[in-house]
Amino acid sequence: MPSTPAQYDFRFFCDVFKRWRHQSGDSQDVVARRGGPSKPIIKAIEDGTWTSVRPKSTLDKVDKGFQWPAGTAWKVLTLQLDPTATEGFVGGSVQAHQQYVSSSVSEQVEGGKQDAEVLRAITSMSAALDQLVTGQRHLAERVDVGQQSLVERVDAVAAGSDARFAALEAGLRELSERVEQLEEPGP
Predict the structure, then answer these.
(1) What tens digit of pLDDT does each residue of 138-182 get?
(2) Closest C-alpha among 68, 71, 64 to residue 41
(3) How far is residue 58's CA from residue 66's CA, in Å, rounded to a whole number?
(4) Mean pLDDT score across all residues of the chain
(5) Percentages helix, strand, coil for the chain, rounded to the nearest 5?
(6) If residue 121 lies in a helix (H) or strand (E), which one and from where to where?
(7) Distance between CA atoms of 94 and 117, rounded to whole angstroms?
(8) How far apart are CA 66 and CA 30, in angstroms?
(9) What average pLDDT does range 116-136 have in this prediction?
(10) What is the spatial distance between Cα 78 and Cα 52, in angstroms, rounded to a whole number?
(11) pLDDT band at residue 50, thresholds of 50, 70 and 90?
(12) What does the alpha-carbon distance between residue 180 and residue 187 come to, in Å, rounded to a whole number?
């Protein structure tokens, strides 16, 4: 079994998860219904026993369940950023999320020109990620519209084929009746 990467701090993540859920007043059912992790996973997280070699899908669900901006749970696990300790952190707002990331990282990084460059790079990457997610949503919407259009075209062709088949069938019946009339002996 592959070992868990050292940059993941599951204990810290589990503590933040439990604190956030209790501070928000959301039940496990509410978090799960919003698209969050299943109740057994929530229980494992809150018990502090949850780990994963590939945690991304669970973290995406945590973002949905807590209504956090995409990527927040990942930052809690990998950067040890704690939204429960940040006043004014509001899930769902890209600007609030970027301010949160910038302020949290700047608090953890010691001063200096190099650190400011790192902070700008992180903020820039966060904005680029937000643009990528928005682009993926637009692409998914376009694919859905394209699929719907294709289904409508196939249905139209099928309906036209059904009508042509019915006309052909009626013509064959009429032709068959004429052949029978010709084969009947005359008076």
Answers:
(1) 777 777 777 777 777 777 777 777 777 788 888 888 888 888 888
(2) 64
(3) 12
(4) 76
(5) 75, 0, 25
(6) helix 113-183
(7) 21
(8) 9
(9) 73
(10) 13
(11) very high
(12) 15
Q: Which two tokens stand for residue 116?
A: 């400011």
Say whether pTM exceeds 0.85.
Answer: no
H helices, E strands: number in the chain? 7, 0
Domains identified in the chain and CATH numbers: 10-108 (1.10.260)
- Which sign, positive or negative, has the C-alpha torsion 129, 133, 138, 144? positive
Residue 175 CA, distance from chain mean position: 59
Look at the block and give the residue holding tokens 């496990």: 28
- What tokens were used for 186? 């005359």
For the record, the structure tokens of 152 come out as 């409508």
- The residues near 68 (Cβ < 8 Å, ≥ 6 apart) are 62, 83, 91, 92, 97
Tokens of 31: 């978090």
